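Data availability excerpt. The first of two example chains:
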Amino acid sequence: MCAWLDVSRSGFYEWRDRPASATATRRGELATLIVRSFTASDGTYGYRRVHADLLAWGRPCGPELVRALMREQGLEPWCQPRPWRHTLTEPDQTPAAIPDLLQRDFTADAPGTKMVGDIT
């Protein structure tokens, strides 16, 4: 495996036995607190409220870090309201029928006799 990864054996064992970095340790501790805050809210808190909980508990961190850690943990609030969007039109109950003038036959006898377009 080391030859395939182009890594020396001693380098692999040094990497494996190395203690976790300070950043990895901090992220692990924050992840534990994030899960605690999220489960205490019955899965309703988003990253902003979880971030506020962490600040209240004396664990300063950025909201984007909380967001990333929640994403890594797979924590997604189940009752986030969708934003209200104002629309000027009301959808029609019955959509208008689009006429099929070519009857799905796209072959042409000469150039320029059947012109079709697709904007999708």
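And the second chain:
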Amino acid sequence: MARPQSILFACTMNTVRSPMAEAIARHYFGREIYFASAGLKRGEADPFAIAAMEEIGVDISRHRPHTFEDLEDSNFDLIVTLSPEAHHKALEFTRTMAVDVVYWPTPDATAAQGSREAILSAYRDVRDRLTARIRDLLGRPPVGGA
């Protein structure tokens, strides 16, 4: 597959996984590729996701969760789904379009329990997994990031 020029990241609520992926991808490759994110349902901003991303210098505090139906443009080269529900929706959403859809199974950090540190650790794990997958997909970013 040629390097995509526009990528949509999709998950269930558009509060943790997909906005993290969008922000990471934009941080490293935002000058070269268009990125967006969406969910099946519109959730609320997640303070743990914001904190985990702040640790790597990426601000997602202004992200407002939205759904597939909220997208202004549905012309993407690639849709990366991060939850089984989002994968099903993306396949339905694209059935009449020429777009690649790939599924990256990604844990739901909101299911983590325990101390604040244990929960934050689950969010860091999601962030780090997404960073590795994005770099593998798009190639290593220049030294020093974007």
